[in-house]
Structures are given as structure tokens and as C-alpha cells.
User: Which sequence fits this backbone?
């Protein structure tokens, strides 16, 4: 393991993201995931600034059993004109019980004069006083030098003085912050190298992503000699976010060969990224490097044909190193190799069956011309493939005689929909009705009610998402509607697609596929 600090600030700077609101229990749960990932430090929040963060540190002492990480409390240097020992916010840092305190301090002369409205000398005294007080209280102190890069550009000497003041007072690390996120990698590298030459500080880096360079800037700082790197899981943070710590760690470990976290822990990165998304209620970003659902998903036929020979031909690294998977996407950009590899992913060996591969490929391309989209509806593709490989009969769980739906509005009441579905299932003709707050909801209820005597396994299925897109005349002479439905069995979910001139008919197709796939997935035999 290298001695480079991996410092996570998801619970403090990440929580400054618009729309993100974490309860104390959420923060404790995220901290446990971060510890599992193997980060060195977890910045838990700003005790004293709000009751939630104060409570987090109080509960953390009893409820968090950290195996790897050290908890850090974040706060600011003491108030102008006061002294650290009497400053209630500084006292709250001591009372938090955290062994590490990270202090944000001004290092930009203009900010001292205009935002802090004090003298340059007083700001240096605030740094010295607060750091030495906390050291005297037995705390390790890291200093976040706010607006360091912008400050260095306008007054290098003062920015360096701020760093020296912190180190002389006992700060272990000075993290140079690109607070406004406006830097580019060459600027960061030059400044870090100069500060290392000019001071005796151990330097850290804290980057925001306003130029889209937060990860690159963090890497540049490490290359230039920084040995402490800050970031947030999934790049959460104020404005455009912070450096995504998962990307930074993966880059440093996989590309630079630095041992930052134990290998088995890095293999949990994808799962942990998604578990934290569940807690923050911020949908995972599918194109997130390394851990995104699309990070190793291949759509182009030419890519698939080379991947068949060796996945390294179209992948920058092995997805399993970060716990992700390679996936084939099937669409009108697929070739036979894509179908073969997708078949392999689904458990079918189609190698050499050129006739079948061509037939499936032609069907996919024809359907995509009509508006279907199989890369967003894996389950509908799997049913199409299975019908070709195993035969229709294996998936004919029921026969649809007819369906209809009406929507009724009375007076001021909300409109209600009622559907009737007639099917033959398990050798019986069943007529069932269902109500819903919309026509698709009503059809879903009616269909599952009609099928439940023959297939009680369907009870646990739930329609969890429904998306509609009107496709323009490029797909034919008239506009058509594409419906994507996501169905869940409580532990996993799948997407199906329907396309028709009529929105309800398109929805019906997607619903039928969703239910059929649920039965196939559960291994239910046709009854
Ligand atoms: C770059 C960053 O992201 S740093 C982290 C920023 N995070 C947050 O601000 C979230 C938590 N903040 C809070 O809850 C509140 O702002 C508090 C409790 C810290 C302070 O609240 P208030 O006392 O009402 O002050 P307010 O927020 O209006 O202004 C901040 C004060 O801190 C001062 N200040 C700013 N930076 C520093 C610093 N590094 N050291 C000391 N004082 C500072 C400002 O000059 C201002 O002083 P003033 O009250 O004399 O004008
Ligand atoms: C400290 C911090 O969050 C910043 O300067 O961006």
C-alpha cells in the first residue's frame, strides 16, 4: 500500500450538491460503504454548523465500526478577532470526538480582504491559532486551502505564506483547493510542483469539476507530488460536483499501479457506487467511468466482432477489476458477432449457426426501423432470441383473445381507467377486469389478474417505470409511439418495448413482454 491518503468528502462537500439531502442514518450507511471500499479518511460533515452533523459525529462514535477509515470533522478557522479556544464552532470540532480535523482556511488575499473583511496578517493568525489549538487538543489537523489556485495566481507570496503558517502550527497536510473548479491540469501540476519546492508541506488536492477536469486535475496534482487526494463518490458536490473519487482511485490504482485500496475492495466499487446512489436517491450515471452501467457496454457490430477475439481490443481495462461487467447491446448497429456474444451472455452457444444469427439480426434491424429499440429493452430482445432458438411454444404462456380499456371522468373527481382482458391460460378461458389511475395501470392489473390462477408467480411483479416517446415520420409515413416499461420482481428489474400507432397498443405489447419475461426468468413452465 502506498502512503497516499484517499480522503472522501461525500458526506460534507458531496452533500453540498443541489437536491441532495442526507439524514443522519443515510450518512452512517454511506460511511459504512466508504469504509468497505477502503478509503483512508471519511469527512463526516461540519459539527456545530447544523444539528444533523453534530448528531452524526455523536452517533458515529457508538454506531460506526470503521475497519479501515479514520473519521474527519470539517470546520473553519476561528472567527476574525476572536481566539480559537473560545470559538464555539472550533470547540464543536473538538467535541465531535474525531481524531482528524480538516480546517478550511483562506489562502487568497482578495478573499481575505473582501469575503473575510480582515487583514492578511489576521487571516494568518487565524490559521496559526486554530491549528495550534487543535493540535494542543490532541487532534491531527489537515488544512483545506480554499481558492488556492486562484489566490496563487493573484498573490503567490501570500498563498505560500498561508501554507507555511499552517505547517508551522502543526498541520499534517495542506490540501490545495480548486474551489471554483476553473483550473486545467497543466496549471494544477505547475502550482503543486512550485508549492512543494517552496514549502515543506505535505500537499493534498481538492478539485471541483467546473471545467470538466476535476479527475484530470487530481491526477496531475498526484503526478506532481501531492500525496493526499480528496473527492466524492459518484462525483457528488456543489455546482458540477467534485472529483469522482471512484474514478481517481481506479485511475491511480489500475493505470498508475499505486496500491491505494486492497484489490478485492476495488472489485466492490461498482456495487458500492450503486448502493450509495440508492441512499442519496440520485439516479446512477450510466456513463460514469469504470462503474457506470454503460462503462463496458458495446453497441457497434465492428466492436463486437473484435471483442469476440479478445475483449481487450475494445476495452481499456478489465471491468471485473472494479466489479463491473462487459455487456453486449443489440440494436440496428449490431452485426452477427453482437448477436452471438449477446447469446453467450444469455447462456446460448450460437457460434457457427450463421443462418440463425442472420435471421435474428435481420429481425432486429427490421424492428428497429419500425421504432423498436432493443439496447434499451434487453428483455424484449431476449424473448425474441429465445423464440428463434428454443421455439415459440416454450414461451406461449397464454393466448390473448382481446383486451380493451376505458377511461371515465365524473365531475371533479380524478379520471379512472378500467380494463378488461380475455385470455386463455392454463387451459382455461379467463375474463378479468382491472382498475387503475391510468389506462396502462388498469391493463397491467387486469392482465395479471387474468393470469394469476395459472401463474401465481406473477403476484410479486410490479410495473416500476413507464416511458413514452413519439417517433417522427423518419420511422415511416406516420408518427408512431414507442413505450418502454420496466418491471420488477422485487430483487431485479427488466425493460421491455412496444411500438404501435396507438399508445395503448404499444403499452400492451411492452406489458405482455414484461410479464412473459418475468415467467421465463423465474423458470416457470408453460401450464
Ligand atoms: C469551500 C467550501 O465549500 S467550505 C464549506 C462551506 N460549507 C458551508 O458553508 C455549509 C455550512 N455552513 C453553515 O452552516 C453556516 O454558513 C455557518 C454555521 C458555518 C456560519 O453561519 P453564520 O454564522 O450565519 O455565517 P454566514 O454563513 O452568514 O457567513 C459566514 C461567516 O464565516 C466567515 N468565514 C468564511 N470563511 C471563513 C474561514 N475560513 N474562517 C473563518 N471564518 C470564515 C465569513 O466571513 C462570515 O463571517 P461574518 O458572519 O462575520 O460575516
Ligand atoms: C474546502 C472546499 O470544499 C473547497 O475549497 O472547495
Assistant:
Amino acid at each position: 500500500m502506498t502512503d497516499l491518503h484517499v480522503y472522501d468528502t461525500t458526506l460534507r462537500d458531496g452533500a453540498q450538491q443541489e437536491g441532495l439531502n442526507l439524514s443522519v442514518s443515510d450518512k452512517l450507511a454511506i460511511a459504512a460503504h466508504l469504509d468497505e471500499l477502503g478509503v483512508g479518511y471519511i469527512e463526516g460533515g461540519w459539527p456545530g454548523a447544523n444539528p444533523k452533523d453534530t448528531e452524526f459525529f455523536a452517533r458515529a462514535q457508538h454506531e460506526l465500526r470503521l475497519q479501515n477509515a479514520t473519521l474527519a470533522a470539517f470546520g473553519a478557522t476561528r472567527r476574525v478577532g476572536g481566539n480559537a479556544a473560545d470559538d464555539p464552532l472550533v470547540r464543536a470540532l473538538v467535541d465531535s470526538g474525531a481524531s482528524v480535523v480538516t480546517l478550511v482556511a483562506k489562502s487568497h488575499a482578495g478573499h481575505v480582504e473582501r469575503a473575510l473583511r480582515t487583514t492578511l496578517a489576521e487571516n494568518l493568525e487565524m490559521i496559526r491559532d486554530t491549528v495550534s489549538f487543535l493540535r494542543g487538543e490532541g487532534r491531527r489537523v489537515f488544512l483545506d486551502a480554499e481558492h488556492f489556485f486562484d489566490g496563487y495566481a493573484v498573490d503567490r507570496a501570500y498563498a505560500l505564506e498561508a501554507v507555511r503558517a499552517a505547517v508551522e502550527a502543526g498541520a499534517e497536510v495542506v490540501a490545495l483547493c480548486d474551489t471554483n473548479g476553473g483550473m486545467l491540469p497543466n496549471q494544477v501540476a505547475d502550482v503543486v510542483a512550485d508549492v512543494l519546492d517552496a514549502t515543506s508541506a505535505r500537499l493534498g488536492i481538492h478539485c471541483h469539476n467546473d471545467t470538466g477536469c476535476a479527475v484530470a486535475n487530481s491526477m496531475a496534482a498526484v503526478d506532481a507530488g501531492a500525496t493526499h487526494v480528496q473527492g466524492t463518490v459518484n462525483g457528488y458536490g456543489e455546482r458540477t460536483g467534485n472529483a469522482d473519487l471512484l474514478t481517481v482511485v481506479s485511475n491511480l490504482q489500475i493505470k498508475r499501479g499505486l496500491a491505494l485500496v486492497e484489490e478485492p475492495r476495488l472489485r466492490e466499487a461498482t456495487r458500492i457506487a450503486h448502493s450509495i446512489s440508492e441512499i442519496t436517491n440520485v439516479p446512477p450515471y450510466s456513463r460514469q467511468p469504470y462503474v457506470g452501467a454503460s462503462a463496458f457496454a458495446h453497441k457497434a457490430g465492428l466492436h463486437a466482432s473484435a471483442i469476440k477475439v479478445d475483449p481487450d481490443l475494445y476495452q481499456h481495462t478489465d471491468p471485473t477489476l472494479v466489479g463491473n461487467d462487459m455487456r453486449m447491446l443489440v440494436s440496428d448497429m449490431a452485426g452477427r458477432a453482437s448477436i452471438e456474444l449477446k447469446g453467450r451472455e444469455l447462456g446460448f452457444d450460437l457460434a457457427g449457426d450463421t443462418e440463425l444469427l442472420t435471421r435474428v439480426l435481420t429481425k432486429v434491424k427490421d424492428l428497429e426501423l419500425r421504432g423498436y429499440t432493443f439496447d434499451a429493452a434487453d428483455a424484449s430482445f431476449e424473448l425474441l432470441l429465445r423464440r428463434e432458438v428454443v421455439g415459440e411454444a416454450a414461451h406461449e404462456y397464454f393466448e390473448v383473445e382481446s383486451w380493451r380499456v376505458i377511461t371515465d371522468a365524473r365531475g371533479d373527481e380524478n379520471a379512472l381507467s378500467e380494463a378488461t382482458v380475455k385470455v386463455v391460460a392454463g387451459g382455461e378461458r379467463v375474463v378479468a377486469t382491472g382498475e387503475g389511475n391510468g389506462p396502462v395501470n388498469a391493463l397491467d392489473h387486469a392482465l395479471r389478474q387474468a393470469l394469476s390462477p395459472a401463474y401465481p408467480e406473477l403476484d410479486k411483479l410490479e410495473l416500476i417505470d413507464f416511458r413514452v416517446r413519439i417517433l417522427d415520420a423518419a420511422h415511416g409515413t406516420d408518427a408512431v409511439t414507442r413505450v418502454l416499461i420496466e418491471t420488477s420482481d422485487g430483487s431485479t428489474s427488466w425493460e421491455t418495448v412496444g411500438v404501435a400507432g396507438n399508445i395503448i397498443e404499444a403499452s400492451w405489447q411492452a406489458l405482455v413482454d414484461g410479464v412473459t419475461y418475468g415467467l421465463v426468468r423465474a423458470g416457470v413452465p408453460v401450464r
Observations:
- The first strand starts at residue 5 and ends at 8.
- The chain has three domains: 5-280, 297-369, 398-447.
